[in-house]
Amino acid sequence: MNTIAAATPAHARARTVFVGIIAALAGLMFGLDIGVISGATQFIQHDFGVTDRTIELIVSAMMLGAAIGALGAGWLSARLGRKRSLILAAVLFVIGSLLCAAAPTPSLLIGARIVLGLAIGVATFTAPLYLAEISAEDNRGAMVSTYQLMITIGILVAFLSDTAFSYSGNWRWMLGVIAIPGVLFLFGVLLLPGSPRWLLMRGYKQRATEVLLKLRGDREVVAREVADIENQLLTPQRGWSLFFKNRNFRRSVGLGVLLQLMQQFTGMNVVMYYAPRIFQSMGYATHQQMWFTALVGLINVLATFIAIALVDRWGRKPILYVGFCVMAIGLGVVGTMMHLGTTTHAAQLFTVVMLLIFIVGFAMSAGPLIWTLCSEIQPLKGRDFGIACSTVTNWIANMIVGATFLTLLDHVGHAGTFWLYAGLNLIFLIITIALVPETRGVTLEQIERNLMAGKRLRDIGQ
Ligand code: BGC
Description:
Largest sheet: none
Bound molecules: beta-D-glucopyranose
CATH class of the largest domain: Mainly Alpha
Structural class: mainly alpha
Radius of gyration: 22 Å
Distance between the termini: 42 Å
């Protein structure tokens, strides 16, 4: 250890930021994957001459892959380590995007989307874990918010690139071009240090100390952090056995699962996957549809800053109340306009604005906050297990939303579909009031003590 030159604090901070940026690129990959398909579906449908049902399968195959990837990621990131899991995710991401671009038949495209999904499943489990493990205490919140911001930026970039390729109608380029950021991500991940926590878990104390020294730059701080992590590691992770034995842990796992169901059934991804189609039904032509979709992506990025600014001031619950109300109103009005018919220019524009208001509602609340809450409510002993359960739920619910939208339109119509999601948002408002805890400014240890003492879920943050 003496041979290691300690970095100056400024160097150490720069390095931490660098590492954070690269790891947050995983969020960018997540976003690119979510966003890229929306602009491509109409051209895929035209080229392959397939039904809406097949389009739903193409869209949702990625979420199936992601659910499987997230299921396996806990095991992978414990075995291979966080860094190697991220490398694997990056490689799969590049291969998956190229396979999508080259797919000669709809079935092969579905298969390629599953491969792409596997990559995202592994990355969405591992990246936030890695981020939390390498960040210092005082910038952990900011690091995790950066991750959500990067998701929205990824979606925006995919929407913009889809818009550019829509002029030639080349969906293969739309799907293939995201291999380029994938390669950059791969090179970036190769430069990352290993996670100090994982290295200590595996008994590589010397290497863990070296990494921390480079990141923090202060021997004393590093010695304390190593001792802290070693201390935490004395509490073994017990997923399933704790789940079967401990009712309180089952409650926190159940809450995590419920929170992710709520996030997905807001209906956000209906807009993410099918925005051009929605604008088409309002009467807009192809390029207008694409530009409005890009606007949706931009508003999604900008409104995320509202959450970042307010989350530690207002707290989680008030922001969720506002978010669910805004989403219910936004979608309720969109449904009503669809019901009345958007025949005039003014009616069309008004409907677009209400859809954008819905996006603001999501991006300022459920988007970032559900991920935050899910990482806060699990007790240390079962944290990996609890977060894995909620992340897998996120992807399964995401798949259901993606796989049912066009069928819903067929059966209950546009107005009915949007009213359905508006109604769900109202139910989520009530669930938030009744069940969701306020975790602002509370230590994770206090939340855990309250949970394990059997306090009501909505009180575990007090
Ligand atoms: C959600 C994604 C969604 C994205 C939109 C994320 O928090 O998990 O499903 O597409 O936000 O910005």
